[in-house]
Amino acid sequence: MNTSLSTYLAGGVAALSLATSTKAQVGDDRLEVFSAVEIKFQSATNRIYNLQGSSDLNQWQNIGRPVFGNGQNFEQFFSSRSGEQVKFELYRLSVVESTNVSFAPWGLTGLQASIEDGANRYRFQFATATNGFRRSNSGLDPFHYQYLKTGENEGRLSLTEDTNRVEQFVFNFTAAGLGTFVREEFRGDRLKERDLGAFNLAASTNSTVELPTPVPPAVPGQLTGRALSFTTGGAPDVLKFTEAAAGMEVETDDSDDDGKTFNYTYLVQNSTNSVIELNFGRGRTERYLLTFTSGAQGTFERQEFRDGTLRDTDRGSFSPVAAGSTTVHGDDDGDDDGDDQGGNGGTTEPGDDQGGNGGTTEPGDDQGGNGGTTEPGDDQGGNGGTTEPGDDQGGN
């Protein structure tokens, strides 16, 4: 990041020093006064903005989170009532030109996105800075949207259709043009659905956004001594291939327990695809279908089997990690309660056997996917909603 700093001092802000937070009580009447600052500025892409405050023109303190410019106007409100430090005599807006290599784009104009949550695939086209359309079997469904780059590798998208339906996405980029997302769908003010998955971004012919140049795919000939991180929207699963045919499944937590070992076979199919077959014993096997898109990283489909029966399928992105950078634990989901969970769950109980990202479950549940509310004895292979005892579901 460029260390040169452009600053814009706010005129007349010294008067704010009179508005310190005070409380005065007279009988049963209480007066509360809070200091506040409201700013508005025109942003530019590839620049990062931060409000700063000072009492002596020498020491400056950042206030609030940085803003990644996108060419639009920004308005921000800071109040001491919300815990922000806004009692300075002087304020300025710092502007830093970003030169860091980052994966999250500064805007979406001209880009198209493919979004998968394990059960469904959605395709979006961002025609302008605020409008686009969703491709569906019935045609093209228009929408309005707002997008903000909120980190070097993070972006937030709010998408509104003609109805009162609003979708909010948090994109976490793991490579050029791909990563994982968390999606929340609202109807009115009510949260209707929340899911996780993987996405791909690509530029169309009228794109005004420059994506980072991908590195040509590099499929390794063997996995010995390597470690790969697999993400479906939550905490990643890490596979360490310690030997030519054996390895260990580990997590990125601080536990010192032993990890779960496996035997494996690895097959290179072509210049962009390979397959890993894992055998954990006790009838549990997994198949990873890898598609390399940039160097040694890309997207994957994971198929989980129990006694030869397909129990769950999910998708996400993968990337290499240093073989010694992960911490091993003996609890498959990292929550130290003895559960056997392969994903990022909600509330669970001891003895649960879940392969995915669950909601509320009860003891003895056997779930392979991303569930909603379940009851004891459920057998679910996919991403379920509300289920009842004895259900046997392979999908959503």
Task: Write structural notes for this entry.
- This protein has no helices and 29 strands.
- It is mostly beta strands.
- The relative contact order is 0.09.
- The N terminus and C terminus are likely disordered.
How would you state the average pLDDT, rounded? 74
Determine the oligomeric state from the structure. single chain
Largest sheet entry: 8 strands, antiparallel, barrel
Rg over CA atoms: 25 Å
Q: What's the tally of helices? A: 0
What low-confidence regions span 5 or more consecutive residues with pLDDT below 50?
1-5, 11-22, 252-257, 325-396
Q: Element order, helices and strands?
A: EEEEEEEEEEEEEEEEEEEEEEEEEEEEE
- The fraction of residues assigned to DSSP E strands is over 45%
Instruction: Compute the number of strand runs.
Output: 29
Biggest sheet strand line-up: 9-10-11-12-13-14-15-16
Helix-and-strand structural type? mainly beta
Report the principal-axis shape.
Answer: globular
Helix content: under 10%
Distance between the termini: 45 Å
Summarize the structure.
It is built from no helices and 29 strands. It has strands at 6-9, 22-26, 29-33, 36-42, 47-54, 61-68, 73-79, 90-97, 111-116, 121-125, 131-136, 139-151, 154-160, 165-175, 178-187, 190-203, 226-231, 237-241, 246-251, 260-268, 273-281, 284-294, 297-306, 309-321, 340-341, 353-354, 366-367, 379-380, 392-393. The strands form 6 sheets. It has an 8-stranded antiparallel beta barrel with strand order 9-10-11-12-13-14-15-16. An 8-stranded antiparallel β-barrel has the order 17-18-19-20-21-22-23-24.
